[in-house]
Amino acid sequence: MAFLCLGSALYIFISLLSYSALDSSFSSVASLSDSVVNLGGPFGAYLSDALFSVAGMGAYLILFIASFAAIRLLFFYKPKNNLYTLIKLSSATILVLSFSTICEYYFSGDFFPQGSSGGILGEIIFTNLSNIFGVVGSLLFIFIFTLIAASLTFSFSWLTVIDSVGRYSLAATSYLMNALKGFVLMSFEKLQSIEIKEFFKTKKIPTEKPLSDAQPRELNLPKTKPASENQSEPLASAAKSISSEISSTKEASSKASSTVYKSKDSKLDAEMPSTDLLDRALDDGSSLSQDELNQLADLLEVKLDEFGVEAKVTSVIPGPVVTRFEIQPAPGTKASKITNIAQDIARSLAVKSVRVVEVIEGKSVVGVEIPNTNRKMVRLTEILSSDVFNKSVSPLSLALGQDIAGKPIVVDLAKMPHLLVAGTTGSGKSVGINAMLLSLLFKSDPKDVRLIMIDPKMLELSVYEGIPHLLTPVITDMTDAANGLRWCVAEMDRRYKLMSELGVRGLAGFNQKVAEAK
Questions:
Q1: What DSSP character marks residue 276?
Q2: Distance, CA of 23 to CA of 29 (rounded, Å)
Q3: Each residue of 121-138: b (16+ CB within 10 Å) or e?
Q4: Domain residue ranges in the chain
């Protein structure tokens, strides 16, 4: 059935396109000797004349709706029920009538049989509506009916159409703006390069000075020697050139630093600070004695049993802030069951909250963390004096605090791709940042680590003003902050180029290559 509809639609389409008023039809009579111009033959001539006479340009819409229905019937789905089919036919009829009426007003009908672009139907409807609502009112009603009928006939939403048009328009606008921006930047760079070349072409070097007096600093990376020279020395010569460039850069930065500070105390050969400058770590002991811990463990077993969880406390790990009880659930007990009753356990033990650790690496137990009654003060001295921090070889070692068991936590900043410190007001962000900065000051020599501090509030980092590790004074102006960050990006790119020249991936490998070349 669908193929028959498609074939008929194609035949009607050819007949409509090849319509000629000279052919014999309902509207005109030609001699029998005249040949038929219509490609559909005599039947096509009569059919196209009938469609144009009744619906005008709406005949093309009838053809389109029939083709659309046949394609959907063939490839997508069958009609749901008779009511659905009736709604589709009614909306299609209203759409054709509305379209013919609009064509009657906007288009000339010289080509059509009845001299009307909307056919007999369009002319009758437009004439009657104009007599009642006027031309403007009639067009308004017709447009509304056309939109509604089109939405029902073709099963789409105008809101979706508007959204799609807006989305694609924004995408096209964004693409054009980016292309225009790229074109402008490329043109500016080309113009700038041309101006620079013209400047150096017209710039004359004075001849009265000897050539040895002018010693411009080579900024380009060193190149290997040609094949005619010694082949075993390119890496050494490159490393020496790079090391001389680095040393000259360090000397320049040192001079700039001394110029900024204008102080004799800002020397890089500074003495490393001692932990005696910090408050001593007081041994205030644990917040709970061993007997109290045992009693709390027994109470935890009792409360778990009351809630239907059979478990036994295997070990107790007291920490500075919380105490972890490691419990061994009975076979078949899910860890999620313990997690679901965490709030009930906290209420039964009269504590603020209880945290359940379902998986502890290397153990088959479940952890229940209960906050201590008295929180122990964790001082920075304990971590900076620990063996973990002292044995850390990285100059970027950071002391973060203590874990749940009271063991110091020390990490290497160089192994962190990104570092973000976030938290609510009063949660300790400033304390954490100060601990990290002090870790660098107590671990690293100013020759190894230099700092650029940006403090928009002018309160947090002002205490570090004047320390030898600073590359510049503490920045409080946002303009200077942007300049400092741009310098950091440029320095990072320069170092990447130097490391790429030697084929290394980090500063450690770069320094090793330079040392070997020396």
A1: G
A2: 7
A3: bbbbbbeebbeeeeeeeb
A4: 2-156, 235-266+446-518, 290-371, 378-444
290-371 folds as: Threonyl-tRNA Synthetase; Chain A, domain 2 (3.30.980)
Residue 31 per-residue DSSP state: -
What gap in Å lies between CA 40 and CA 33, rounded to an integer? 18
Three-state secondary structure call for residue 454: strand
Count of CA atoms in the C-beta half-sphere (13 A) of 279: 7
Q: Which two tokens stand for residue 470?
A: 């600073």
Radius of gyration of the chain (CA): 43
Compute the distance between CA of residue 337 and CA of residue 455 in angstroms, rounded to an integer. Answer: 48
Phi-psi map region of 352: left, alpha, beta (phi>0 left; psi -120 to 50 alpha): alpha
For each successive 10 residues of the chain (518 residues), what is the average pLDDT? 75 82 69 68 82 85 83 70 79 88 81 76 86 86 88 82 86 88 78 56 43 38 39 46 49 41 46 82 69 89 90 90 91 90 91 91 91 85 90 91 88 87 87 92 89 89 90 90 90 91 86 85
Please enumerate in sequence order all residues whose Cβ is within 8 A of that of 231, keeping only pairs 6 or more positions apart, or say none: 225
What's the pTM? 0.46
CA gap 32, 186 in Å, rounded: 72
The residues near 445 (Cβ < 8 Å, ≥ 6 apart) are 268, 270, 272, 395
Question: How far is the CA of 162 from the CAs of 105, 158, 397, 425, 467, in angstroms?
Answer: 27, 6, 57, 44, 62
